């Protein structure tokens, strides 16, 4: 088990959620139950799945939750493209958040690989 509050991937995920909430607060009111809700839910899913996975008994289970967090990041990136196409955000906002998404994805990938390596080394 891992203390998720000490994991940089969790901290960056929480920061991403905060940024997403700030940006989506500027979306049209008509999107309150549409794109705003969907974007916020998938962004919250990222640190939430990291936290939930950290409490699991095995690293294999943790990696599964990291995989779900990765999927949520891909979903978020897609929704940002749609937001940009609808002119809810500008190109700069999209690029800043997309860059952060890619950085968090890299961090999750590396962390997941380290969990897998650790698991393989204990089975030798």
TrEMBL record:
Alphabetized InterPro entries for the sequence: 23S_rRNA-intervening_sequence, 23S_rRNA_IVS_sf
SUPFAM superfamilies to which the protein is assigned, alphabetical:
IVS-encoded protein-like
Supply the name of the protein: Four helix bundle protein
Matching entries from CDD domains are given as: 23S_rRNA_IVP_like
């Amino acid at each position: 088990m891992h203390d998720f509050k000490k994991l940089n991937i969790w901290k960056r995920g929480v920061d991403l959620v905060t940024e997403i909430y700030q940006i989506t607060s500027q979306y049209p009111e008509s999107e309150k139950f549409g794109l705003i809700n969907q974007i916020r839910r998938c962004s919250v899913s990222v640190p939430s799945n990291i936290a939930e996975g950290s409490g699991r008994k095995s690293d294999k289970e943790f990696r599964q939750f990291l995989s779900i967090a990765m999927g949520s990041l891909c979903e978020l990136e897609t929704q940002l493209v749609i937001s940009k196409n609808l002119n809810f955000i500008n190109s700069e906002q999209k690029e800043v958040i997309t860059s952060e998404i890619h950085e968090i994805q890299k961090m999750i990938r590396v962390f997941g690989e380290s969990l897998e390596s650790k698991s393989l080394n204990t089975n030798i």
